[in-house]
Design brief:
By secondary structure, this protein is of the alpha/beta class. 71% of the residues lie in helices and 8% in strands. It contains 15 helices and four strands. It has helices at 2-8, 38-46, 65-80, 92-106, 109-115, 119-150, 164-174, 179-201, 210-248, 251-257, 262-300, 305-315, 318-325, 327-344, 350-381, and strands at 11-17, 20-29, 53-63, 85-88. Strands 1-2-3-4 form a four-stranded mixed beta sheet. The longest helix is centred in the middle third of the chain and has 39 residues, at 210-248. It is elongated. The chain starts with a helix and ends with a helix.
Length: 384
C-alpha cells in the first residue's frame, strides 16, 4: 500500500545530460498533491541552469489545472531568465491542458504590466476608441432619426401606421408627469437669480434692472436649458431603461420576428412625445422662473408685481421668447435619440443596463449644453 502511495506522490528528479538540464516529473500532480512539490518547484524557479531546460512529464500519471499551472509556472520562470525550455512526454490530453494554462499565464497581470505601452500611446489609443465609439453613436442616431422622420412603420413595408394612443400616453408620462419638478426647480432658480442680481445691482441703485436680467436670461437660456437637463435625467433615463430591459429580455427580437419595426413601436412614439412635451414644459418653466423672480423682487427689493410686469413687457420682445422656444424641439430630439441609441446597446446583464442608463444621462446633458452654446453663437452671428 505504501509503495502505491509513493508511486502516486509527486516528485522532481534533477539530472544533466549532454549540456541540458532535465527535470523529470513523476506522480500525480493535482489539487490534492501539488502542495507537496510547491517548495521544491520554487527552489528550482530560483535556480538558473546553463543551457536548455527539459521538463519531462512522461512519469506524470495524473494532472489537473493546479498541477498544470505549477508546471507552466516553473517553465515560465526559466523562460524569463533567458533559458530555452521544452516540455516533453505529455499525453494528448495533458498537452491540451498545459497549452490552455500556458495561454492564461501569458495573459496574467505580470506579463500585462511588462507589455503595457507608453502612457502617451495609451492616451492616443483611448482617444481613438472614443472617436470610433462617437462615430458609431452618430451613425446609429442618424438611423433612428431617419426612421422616425420617414414614419412610424409599425409593419414592415407600410409607410405609416401611427398609434395616437401610444403618443398621448408618452406625452402624459414625459410631459404632464414632469410639470411638478419643472415648476419647483425653475421657480427656485429664478428666485436665486433675482436675489443675487438684486444684491449686486443695489450697489448701483439699479435694482429695477433685475427684471431685465431675469427676463432675458430665463426666456433665452435658463428656461429651455433647465427643462432639457431635467427631461434628460428623468425621461431620457426612463427611455434607456425601458428599451434596454426589452433588449435584455429579447423582446425587441420578438418584435422583429412578428414583422414589427422596433423603431416604429418603441422609439417613434417617444420621440414625437418629447418634441411636443419639451416646448410645452419650457413655457411652464419660463412662467415658473419669472414667478419666483417676481416674488423675490417684491419681498427682497420692494418691486411690486405690477412694476415687475410693466418692466418685463418693456425689456423683452417676441424675439427673446422665440430664441428659447426654437431650441426646445432640437433639445427633445437630441435627448430622445441618445436615450434610444443607448437603450439599443444594452447587453444581457443588469450591469450593462446601469452603465448605459448612466451614459445616456451624461451624454444627453453634455450634448444639450453644447447645443445651447452653438445656438447662442448662431444667434449672435445673425444678430437675433
Amino acid at each position: 500500500m505504501s509503495q502505491v502511495a509513493d508511486a502516486r506522490r509527486p516528485s522532481i528528479a534533477v539530472s544533466e545530460e549532454g549540456g541540458r538540464t532535465i527535470w523529470a516529473l513523476s506522480g500525480v500532480w493535482n489539487t490534492r498533491s501539488v502542495h507537496l512539490v510547491d517548495a521544491p518547484t520554487r527552489e528550482l524557479e530560483q535556480s538558473h541552469p546553463r543551457g536548455e531546460v527539459i521538463l519531462d512529464v512522461t512519469g506524470v500519471t495524473g494532472l489537473d489545472t493546479a498541477g498544470a499551472w505549477l508546471i507552466q509556472r516553473l517553465a515560465d520562470s526559466q523562460r524569463r531568465a533567458g533559458a530555452p525550455v521544452e516540455i516533453v512526454g505529455a499525453s494528448p490530453s495533458a498537452s491540451i491542458l498545459l497549452d490552455a494554462v500556458g495561454e492564461a499565464l501569458d495573459d496574467g497581470p505580470e506579463v500585462s504590466r511588462r507589455l503595457q505601452p507608453f502612457i502617451v500611446i495609451r492616451w492616443l489609443e483611448t482617444l481613438g476608441r472614443l472617436t470610433v465609439a462617437a462615430f458609431d453613436d452618430f451613425v446609429a442616431g442618424m438611423y433612428i432619426l431617419g426612421s422616425t422622420i420617414r414614419g412610424a412603420q409599425m409593419k414592415l413595408g407600410r409607410g405609416h401606421a401611427v398609434n395616437p394612443a401610444a403618443i398621448f400616453n408618452q406625452i402624459d408620462r414625459m410631459g404632464v408627469g414632469a410639470i411638478p419638478v419643472v415648476v419647483l426647480i425653475s421657480s427656485i432658480v429664478g428666485a436665486i437669480v433675482a436675489q443675487q442680481g438684486a444684491y449686486q445691482l443695489r450697489w448701483f441703485g439699479a435694482e429695477i434692472f433685475i427684471v431685465d436680467l431675469v427676463g432675458i436670461l430665463t426666456l433665452r437660456e435658463l428656461g429651455v436649458l433647465l427643462t432639457s437637463i431635467m427631461i434628460a435625467g428623468r425621461s431620457g433615463s426612463a427611455i434607456t431603461a425601458e428599451i434596454g430591459s426589452m433588449k435584455m429580455r429579447e423582446e425587441i427580437d420578438a418584435l422583429k420576428v412578428i414583422g414589427l419595426n422596433p423603431i416604429g413601436v418603441l422609439v417613434f412614439p417617444r420621440l414625437v412625445a418629447l418634441v411636443i412635451a419639451v416646448p410645452c414644459l419650457t413655457i411652464v418653466a419660463n412662467a415658473a422662473s419669472l414667478s419666483g423672480a417676481m416674488l423675490v423682487a417684491d419681498i427682497y427689493s420692494g418691486i411690486p408685481p405690477e412694476a415687475f410686469i410693466d418692466r418685463l413687457r418693456a425689456s423683452v420682445d417676441l424675439s427673446t421668447i422665440f430664441a428659447g422656444m426654437i431650441k426646445a424641439p432640437f433639445m427633445a430630439l437630441i435627448i430622445g435619440i441618445i436615450a434610444s441609441v443607448e437603450g439599443m446597446k444594452v447587453g444581457g446583464s443588469a450591469e450593462s443596463l446601469g452603465r448605459h442608463v448612466t451614459a445616456s444621462v451624461v451624454k444627453s446633458i453634455f450634448v444639450v449644453i453644447v447645443l445651447d452654446g452653438l445656438f447662442a453663437m448662431f444667434y449672435v452671428a445673425i444678430d437675433f
